[in-house]
Amino acid sequence: MQNRSKSLSLFGESRDSDTKAAWKSALDINGAPMFVTNLQSAKEWFEVLQTGGQSQAAVMDLVPGQASGDDAESHPHSDQVLLVVEGEVLAVVAEDRARLHSGDVVIVPAGVQHRFLNESDAPARTFSVYAPPAYPNRRR
Description:
Radius of gyration: 17 Å
Strand order of the largest sheet: 1-2-8-3-6
Largest sheet: 5 strands, antiparallel
């Protein structure tokens, strides 16, 4: 097995200049190279967990019958990668519909209308990454 510790070092030789610049940006914003947050720390049904210079992480909890909003929305400048952590969610992305289960991932391109609904009898939890940050005023 290949030793990968070198490639995981913060500013090791294996890092190119763009990666080093991104890490420096993250250090400047957060004050540390790593900020760990647990999904269980979320107190609201939708909560931004972390915001960095280039991306943002959030958790969304939907009780049965709840949707991500009354209407579809879009993030004009941000792609959204949504992972279903627990439960089942109906994803409506543009004109497409898909029932997502725990472990399923969908990418919503920037500017595309979307909505997520919990039509099941059990709670659902999702984890999303927005790049660049979709909610710049929500930093944690």
